[in-house]
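COURSE: Structural Biology Practicum
ASSIGNMENT: Worksheet 4, Part C
STUDENT ID: 0417
INSTRUCTIONS: Below are two proteins. For each, the amino acid sequence is given first, followed by its structure token string. Answer the questions at the end about the second protein only.

PROTEIN I
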Amino acid sequence: MAMKVKEVAELASISVRTLHHYDEIGLLTPDEVTSAGYRLYSDANLERLQQILFFKELDFSLKDIKNIITDPSFNPEETLHMHRLILLEKRQRLDHMIATIDKTVLHMRGEIIMTTKEQFEGFDFCQNPYEQEARERWGTKLSNRQTKNCITRLSRILKLWPTK
């Protein structure tokens, strides 16, 4: 089922201009362009757009995304699995920070006492280990802000990492 650029933009919550830009740089070229100049996107185009948007969520550059998804060894299913793990880790961190905010509000109201350690629970500015694994796997450079806490967390999480 072919979709016009405006329909795809609305579906994916991105701008028409973004889709035009992706086409211009060869990141997402529609399968068909009508004689009237309408870009028509196929289901395969939509799957590729989804992958692009997942990588954008992880702050990959468009150039890196293009290199990754055009690589012959690119495996969309494996990539989706990695994206899922990254997002689960992110959700866990956010849930922990929300709990810290809730406790801080109660502390400010004088309803509970928080230790200084509790005031900073949930803050972890180390890279998400899955994100790091994804960047290493796909060749994107990371800024190395490794600390003992990051290494400990990475070791704990990698014990759960599925192996082939």
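PROTEIN II
(use this one for the questions)
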Amino acid sequence: MNFRQKIYILALLLFCSQKTVAQNAIAFEESNYETIIQKSKTAKKPVFYMIYASWCPHCNKMKQEVFTDKKVIDFFNSNFINAQQDGDSEHGKYLKEKFNVSSLPTFVFLDENGTILYKLKGEYSPEQLITEAKNALNPNMQLPYLEKQFNSDISDGNKCMAYLMALRKGNDRKTISIPAHKYLSTQQESQLATNLNWMVIANGVTDIESREFQYVLNHKKDFETVVGTDRVQRKVINIVTEFLKPYTENLDTINYEKDRKIALKIDLPETNSLIFNYDLTIAERTENWKKYDEINQKYVEKLAWENASQLKEIATNYEKHITDKSSLKKAGKWMERSLELSDSYDGLLLVTKLYWKASDKKQANLYGKKAKAKSEELGFHSEESDQLFKQLGLK
């Protein structure tokens, strides 16, 4: 076989390999938006757009496990112009803003004029994705139709819910809240405690100071009678989480402190506990250990007294980062409470360290002996514990 023949065979194999790959996945294009829309007009097919990122595990899972499924490939290649764009690219950032993308992956179905027909986000199985794609092709399930139906009578709760449930598949809660409040504005307060209105509130209300949410807080028993205690409690926790968590994640301490005061007005055990955890997270991540100590001195016995693992986590931070001896002794008491709830060798070792660091040798020796006995009982030996026992004179 001569050189020219070898090159020909190699090129043929490469072509076949590329063709096989193309047939084993959705035929995505990564052209600019205007080009994709023009192709949609020419082919008279709607667009299926995927906004992704290379670092996104959910995006990669969809690409590797769903878009390679034969049923998915056949359905999408037959019914759509398929396009994708990396959300971190310059054009991707433009599309994220245009489509109001808040998480990845996001899937947007467009008509040939660029109108959003349907929107999804997150992971789907092949069967689920095909079902949703069929919905996107159904005029009666598309967002423009559902929006028009709702706006024809904004006092119709069923039309509102149909629109909300379609919106929530691909949009953030703030977008969903707009039609929810539009509908709820037609309801008198005395009408709010119904199952249908609860569904609108649960799915669409995100404003902690809104009339509807404040009514829920002031009439919890009424709503609990209609939908159950767990669902009402879950909504209250979720709305506080949505209100404060972004500030915690971004360490936006200014806005956190401002909105924390609003959340504290709810004054329920479950929300107070949530705020306490956010307070600790911010203090810990900013390494403000003085603030961390102040928070715990005020709230730990009220809000963490029955939580052995949280008490242990707090005590661990005291042993690592706090130097004030009176605070360390207090942490020792908290760790004693943790041991009452859940006895453990490492817990005994931790309370021993706390009292040793606080110069309370009596308590350090007391718990050191318990830790030593526990280590012998369990057969645990480490250089760290042996060194501590040696310091305590427990050889």
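ANSWER KEY EXCERPT:
Q1: The first strand starts at residue 47 and ends at 52.
Q2: Residues 103 and 194 are 32 Å apart (CA to CA).
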